[in-house]
Model the fold of this input.
Amino acid sequence: MAPSVKGVLFDMNGLFRHWRNNGARVSEQLASLPEGTIDRYAYQHPAYRLARVGVLTDQQWAQDVADRLAADYGEHVRDALAAWREDRGEADPHMITLLPLIRAQLPAGVLSNCTDALHADLEHHGIAFDYVMPSADLGVDKPSPHAYRLAAERMATAPGNLLYFDDEPTFVRAAAAAGLQAHLFTSATDVQRRLNECGVNVRM
Done:
């Protein structure tokens, strides 16, 4: 039976990479910052959205975070931020094992709401996709339907022929509205099962 899909599109974080924020905690301790300060200054600030859609590079955004922290807490904070920046999360061994088995049969892409650092992060973790699409490269982030349609366009595949996995229910719903065969990610085993149901014989 021929596969009923022509490509697979994945989210990144929560599937192939898990964030524990260990680096941020170390930096906060070194700089005597209250716990959660880096999260507030880095990810809850409007500048992060600008980096996610490519207005700022990852390096420009990180510099902005450092400048704001130094202005509010003192210049000594800059020297403590290395641990935060060096923490690139932890790779998921099950999904990393599954990915090349998928790519042997279908093109696989990653669509992630993140800065342009995604390219270097994938290399750091030894994860290889056929198509790498951080929202910073697309100029638009999920859950905009344009993000999913641009991803499908870059993969030269009609949205209806793409199988999509994400651990965020809102993004799954948005992908389905954009025409993708979207599923909530639960495990590598579930991905394998759904691929098999689509006629893609994958065995780990």
In short: The longest strand covers residues 108-112.
